[in-house]
Specification:
Oligomer: single chain
Distance between the termini: 55 Å
CATH architecture of the largest domain: Up-down Bundle
Largest sheet: 2 strands, antiparallel
Helix content: 55-70%
CATH topology of the largest domain: Fumarase C, Chain A, domain 2
Number of domains: 3
Radius of gyration: 31 Å
CATH superfamily of the largest domain: Fumarase/aspartase (Central domain)
Strand content: under 5%
Shape: elongated
CATH class of the largest domain: Mainly Alpha
Structural class: mainly alpha
Number of strands: 6
Strand order of the largest sheet: 1-2
Number of helices: 18
């Protein structure tokens, strides 16, 4: 098959080179975006009278025919034609004749692939933003449903202070809000049209890049033709956003795995989102959460792969950049799959609120409340901290909870302690008292729920 660039060559490309350099096996994923870009480019060429309207109409109709054949699986993709761009252009010329040879006027594969990848990521990021929004809504519903349940809060994976389960769940809602905003911000820098920059220096033909950008729905046109074809910052930024989101998913997955163990027994995962053991009949394994935790590593790897790919490239385009697509495609597919499966898993999740409540007071979790009680009585915080520490030490030595001490025993540690300390030892009261903005009190959790409800409308 004749190469579209074969004019200055006297020998046929080696078969091993064709296999080594082809990208059609993966960049055919960009076919819709390539046809969209080519359609806009043809219309611009006609508008600028670089080609005739008749030729442009034939090109557009031919591209639509190719689109149909790719959709129905009858399009003959060829590795000899290297990539999606040359596969489509070759088929177009074969189908409509000489007019097809005019489509590539005033453009290069360098700006063509750049616009395709930007169009692809624009579509996928919009989808990811909606998946994150759906996940946030699920968290808000779970928080509202379980807003009265008290659970142990943790630092260093040690029981720290009681919190509302709803408060804990809303922490993830806040994380995913930042993720959503990052993707939306990344979209702004992705929404720039490089088409018309050609190989690196622009063109002497009277093109209208602003018109092409408008047809393609871009917010603006790239301002430097060299940067237009050599820039992959938008892809790196996307991969960075994806890596941060996967980190959040992995943290959540880790908690779900821990909470589903017999040692914690905080949750029960649905049979629909767990698997069994091939040898141990009793097992119910959190494989979905474990895979999510594992897949985070491959998204991190994709980011590092593209950073490494780009770090030594001189301006402008280099063939190394063909390797940008697989990390991007893989991260898009991985992230979207994780977001979709996680949402379903959470909707089926059951919380053991009785167990959560029972454990919320263990580990001397209301000790800080005693210290703050003493502060309200006029005791300097450092003194209050030391007094409370001695109270805890006494309980540890006797293997009793804080509530196991009588009022007489408590008041022996400080004359400031009186009968009004008893409610302070109750985890539910501890939660109710934490009314500082963003705290875990029922009123603050309700405020946060209302805030996210309004934000996610």
């Amino acid at each position: 098959m004749k190469k579209l660039w074969s004019g200055r060559f006297t020998q046929k490309t080696s078969g091993t080179v064709e296999s080594f350099t082809e990208s059609i096996s993966f960049d055919k994923k960009l076919w819709k975006h390539d046809i969209k870009g080519s359609t806009a480019h043809a219309r611009m060429l006609a508008r600028q009278r670089i080609i005739t309207k008749k030729e442009a109409d034939a090109i557009v109709a031919g591209l639509q025919q190719i689109s149909v054949s790719i959709e129905n699986g009858s399009f003959p993709f060829s590795s000899e034609l290297e990539d999606i761009h040359m596969n489509i252009e070759s088929a177009l010329t074969e189908n409509i004749g000489p007019a097809g040879k005019k489509l590539h006027t005033a453009r290069s594969r360098n700006d063509q692939v750049a616009v395709d990848l930007r169009l692809y990521l624009k579509d996928e990021m919009k989808k990811i933003v909606q998946l994150l929004k759906a996940l946030q809504r699920t968290f808000v519903r779970l928080a509202e449903k379980n807003k009265g349940a008290v659970m142990p809060g943790y630092t260093h994976l040690q029981r720290a202070q009681p919190v509302l389960l709803g408060h804990h769940l809303l922490a993830y809602t806040a994380m995913f809000q930042r993720d959503r905003e990052r993707f939306q911000d990344c979209l702004k820098r992705t929404d720039v049209c490089p088409l018309g920059a050609c190989a690196l220096s622009g063109t002497s033909l009277p093109t209208d890049r602003a018109y092409t950008a408008k047809l393609l729905g871009f917010r603006e046109v790239s301002g430097n033709s060299i940067d237009s074809v050599s820039d992959r910052d938008f892809a790196l930024e996307f991969l960075s956003c994806a890596a941060i989101t996967m980190m959040h998913l992995s943290r959540l997955a880790e908690e779900l795995i821990l909470w589903s163990t017999e040692e914690f027994r905080f949750i029960e995962m649905s049979d629909r989102f767990t698997t069994g053991s091939s040898i141990m009949p009793q097992k119910k394994n959190p494989d979905v959460a474990e895979l999510m935790r594992g897949k985070t590593g491959r998204v991190y790897g994709n980011l590092v792969a593209l950073l490494t790919l780009m770090k030594g490239l001189p301006l402008a385009y280099n063939r190394d950049m063909q390797e940008d697509k697989l990390p991007v495609f893989d991260s898009v597919e991985t992230l979207e799959a994780c977001l979709e499966v996680l949402d379903g898993m959470l909707q089926d999740l059951k919380f053991n609120t009785e167990r959560l409540s029972l454990t919320s007071g263990e580990g001397y979790s209301t000790a800080t409340d005693i210290a703050e009680y003493l502060v309200r009585k006029g005791v300097p915080f450092r003194e209050a901290h030391e007094i409370t520490g001695r109270i805890v030490l006494s309980c540890i030595s006797r293997n009793i909870p804080l509530t196991g001490l009588s009022l007489k025993e408590l008041s022996a540690f400080s004359p400031k302690i009186s009968g009004d300390i008893i409610p302070v030892l109750d985890p539910a009261e501890s939660v109710r008292a934490r009314t500082s903005f963003g705290g875990t009190s029922p009123s603050e959790v309700r405020r946060q729920i209302n805030y996210f409800k309004k934000l996610l409308k």
